[in-house]
Design goal:
The protein is built from 15 helices and 15 strands. The protein is an alpha+beta fold. Among the domains are: 115 residues, no CATH class; 222 residues, no CATH class. It has a 6-stranded antiparallel β-sheet. It has a 4-stranded antiparallel β-sheet with strand order 8-13-12-11. A 3-stranded antiparallel β-sheet has the order 2-1-15. The chain starts with 15 loop residues before the first helix and ends in a 42-residue tail after the last helix. The structure holds zinc ion (ZN) (2 copies). The site of one zinc ion has 8 residues, from loops.
Length: 514
């Protein structure tokens, strides 16, 4: 069977992001060391790791077709969780497939609930992991309470709701904005007959008043929590942080405010480009409510049985912070970032110097070990009914092969695809399968004969890699990384000061965004 499209190695070194980081990362980190206490280790690791991602001479996997003896080489990836568009995209597809295939019950309608927090609490809550978890808990409980009361009205006093929650660390415009997207089952499970499987009862969509009440309740509960912890007065915390705390706090606080934290434009607002202010279409406001900055949004739902649409929604809530196509380099050396959608003031693009862009990206790297996706109610791992309602539950309960999990932990760009490594249902969807599911590409389909290819080796030895690159006509050296050009400055010879914006580049300087 021949397929129309086959895998070709992506060329990350040609991406604007790669060019920016290879040229300016060393300078940025040097600046961070000199002007503050540097960046957390995991952030540096992620930024450097990105530069090796998909670069063949940094390591590869060899796949082979037994039918026609054809071989193919696939570069290793960085597995970054914050800024790598490629790995972020893969994780998004991977987790979305997992949610649809193995977590969200089939034939059940779902609704997305989104909670964003007031500016004044964002820094405070994002910085404190326990506080953040508590806020997540409040959000879930308040929506659950609404669903349970709707169920009661429908004559079901003991209904059990369920949800999957994704924490996002960013807002549009590379802004640090920790907020929550939940996919809630639009109904509850209950067990009408003892010893029989639980049954799902669909519930009507919430009304505008109910959504407004959810926002009000969340505000009340979160503020009560902050008061109890003595943090309610910390409204000025962001500003204080920007003044007094570590460089890392400054970067986070400035990002929340849409300002620049380092370099000659310190304190300035990020430069915006765009047109006329626009009015948001009224449809967007439906089932949205705001309680003093606690913004709740519940207008997106997917009916039962719409699996593709559901997977699209899952991908949306899991999308990575940065899509590489939004960045382009200007002739001036600055970077143009295209917004996903036009802001209400008409802004379509943001302009950063390379160092400013790196500053914004660094903040988006999540701390290691924090779960970005959590399961609640009947979908939580502890729920008694979970096994009876999630798809594929029976196979899963036979247990995972530890070998397959271990193999995945090493994860070359292609790991997890060796069928011989694990016979149990893999926790993650094999990469080749994902590629075909998402892009209509089958990476393990032999481009010569259409047969199935297998991973035969992981190549990490420098001598072997050099030979491999030579055979393939690929460069044996990684793209050069510029050393730091940071010089200790005593003052910046910039005209103007905070509040005064440099002129927007003339239209002639634009490279058309793709
Ligand atoms: Zn073949
Ligand atoms: Zn990567």
């Amino acid at each position: 069977m021949a397929t129309s499209a086959t895998y070709t190695r992506r060329r990350p070194e040609l991406d604007p992001l790669h060019q920016i980081l290879s040229e300016h990362l060393a300078t940025f980190l040097d600046q961070a060391e000199h002007e503050g206490s540097g960046l957390p280790g995991y952030v540096k690791k992620e930024l450097w790791g990105y530069l090796d991602c998909g670069i063949l001479c940094k390591g590869a996997v060899r796949v082979h077709c037994q039918d026609c003896d054809h071989s193919l080489v696939v570069a290793l990836s960085c597995k970054g969780r914050g800024i790598c568009p490629s790995c972020g995209g893969r994780r998004m597809n991977d987790t979305a497939a997992h949610l649809v295939d193995r977590v969200l019950p089939d034939d059940v309608s779902v609704r997305q609930w989104v909670l964003s927090l007031p500016h004044r609490y964002r820094f405070l809550i994002a910085k404190d992991v326990q506080l953040l978890q508590k806020v997540v808990g409040i959000f879930v409980r308040v929506v659950f309470a609404l669903l349970c009361s709707l169920a009661k009205q429908a004559g079901i006093p003991d209904g059990k709701p369920g949800a999957v929650l994704a924490l996002q660390r960013f807002g549009d415009g590379l802004i640090f904005n920790t907020h929550m997207h939940g996919i809630f089952l639009q109904g509850v499970y209950h067990r009408p007959v003892a010893d029989q499987a639980p049954v799902f009862v669909a519930l009507p969509a919430p009304t505008q008043e109910q959504v407004a009440r959810v926002a009000q309740k969340i505000k009340k509960k979160v503020e009560r929590l902050l008061r109890k912890k003595g943090r309610l007065d910390a409204q000025g915390a962001q500003e204080e942080a920007a003044q007094e705390q570590s460089l890392w706090d400054k970067l986070c606080a400035a990002s929340i405010q849409g300002r620049i934290a380092t370099g000659p434009k310190q304190g300035w607002r990020v430069q915006r480009l765009g047109g006329q202010a626009v009015l948001l279409p009224p449809g967007e406001r439906y089932l949205c409510a705001d309680a003093d900055g606690f913004n709740v949004h519940a207008h997106t739902s997917v009916g039962a049985g719409h699996k593709e649409e559901r997977e699209r929604l899952c991908r949306y809530i899991l999308r990575p912070a940065l899509c590489g196509q939004r960045l382009s380099l200007l002739a001036s050396g600055d970077v143009l970032f295209q917004l996903k959608r036009t802001w209400s003031d008409g802004t379509k693009y943001l302009v950063f110097t390379p160092l400013e862009l790196i500053e914004k990206l660094a903040v988006l790297v999540p701390p290691p070990g924090r779960h970005l996706v959590t399961y609640h109610g009947v979908l939580s791992s502890a729920a008694v009914w979970r096994k009876q309602i999630i798809p594929g539950a029976q196979q899963k309960s036979q247990g995972e092969d530890p070998q397959s999990v271990k193999a995945e932990a090493r994860d070359p760009e292609a790991a997890g695809i060796q069928p011989e490594l694990g016979t149990a249902v893999p926790r993650r969807t094999p990469w080749a399968q994902l590629m075909s599911r998402t892009f209509g590409l089958d990476v393990l389909c032999c481009p010569k004969c259409g047969g199935r290819m297998k991973i035969v080796a992981v190549v990490l030895d420098p001598v072997e890699i050099a030979r491999l690159c030579e055979n393939l006509g690929e460069p044996a050296q990684a793209p050069p990384i510029k050393p730091s050009r940071y010089q200790v400055q005593t003052g910046w010879d910039f005209a103007g000061g905070p509040g005064e914006f440099p002129d927007a580049p003339a239209p002639a300087e634009f490279v058309d965004p793709p």
